[in-house]
Design a protein that fits this description.
DhaL_dom_sf, kinase, EC 2.7.1.121, binds magnesium ion, binds adenosine-5'-diphosphate, 9 helices, Serine Threonine Protein Phosphatase 5, Tetratricopeptide repeat
């Protein structure tokens, strides 16, 4: 039993709403080490995603992810727009033409998303970016599916690992993005993009019923 196009639409809608609800927190984090717009950027993008998803008419899980990607790319400015857009676009390609998303498909989508973010932004683990949340999430998702876990367990493991990965960015000195302009002064602050990645994954896990 996997997730149908309706399940995936509901999960992305839930993630969009939750990210919008975290607008102020993400703005605050980005004020500390960036330009204070991360929550605003994502709220704009995910509000547009919700409007697009209201239109319906998706022929499979991949098309839901693809519309999310193109909407984010065209509405979110800054670094995060193209990065999240690429993540959802690669995830869509990885899902392909399956009509039901199972645990293995979730893992390949998450891995493709990470590879897309890295291809686009060239950040490595430890650079204090969203990559520091997404990398451990992919590893945890893989181990969970290898141990026989289904979608809810896979997403819960990914969300837990992303939370820990995001928290671990506090100690790091930023080497990519605006925060890198601060050098050593970027240490001691949670990276906004790592936090939004953790928020997104938690919302997807909650929507999957884990
Ligand atoms: P901007 O910095 O252009 O204002 P946002 O504030 O929306 O864009 O997003 C900032 C977040 O984007 C950072 O917290 C970081 O997680 C992420 N980010 C920035 N540059 C990169 C990169 N090269 N690779 C991966 N993530 C990045
Ligand atoms: Mg910013
Ligand atoms: Mg900006």
């Amino acid at each position: 039993m996997g997730c149908s196009v309706e399940d995936v639409t509901a999960a992305v809608r839930e993630a969009a709403k939750v990210v919008c609800a975290h607008r102020d927190e993400l703005v605050e984090l980005d004020r500390e080490i960036g330009d204070g717009d991360h929550g605003e950027n994502l709220q704009r993008g995910f509000t547009a995603v919700l409007a697009k998803l209201d239109g319906g008419g998706f022929d499979g899980p991949a098309s839901v992810l693809k519309v999310t990607a193109t909407t984010l790319i065209s509405t979110v400015g800054g670094a995060a727009g193209p990065l999240y857009g690429t993540a959802f676009l690669r995830a869509s390609t990885a899902v392909g033409d399956v009509s039901e998303v199972d645990g293995r498909v979730v893992v390949s989508a998450l891995r493709a998303a990470l590879e897309g973010v890295v291809a686009r932004g060239k950040a490595a683990p430890g650079d204090k970016t969203m990559v520091d949340a997404l990398t451990p999430a992919v590893d945890a998702a893989q181990s969970t599916v290898d141990a026989g876990g289904a979608v809810p367990e896979v997403l819960r493991a990914a969300a837990d690992a992303a939370d820990a990965g995001a928290e671990a960015t506090i100690a790091l000195v930023a080497r990519k993005g605006r925060a890198s302009y601060l050098g050593e002064r970027s240490a001691g602050h949670l990276d906004p993009g790592a936090r939004s990645t953790a928020v997104l994954l938690r919302a997807l896990a909650d929507a999957a019923g884990s």
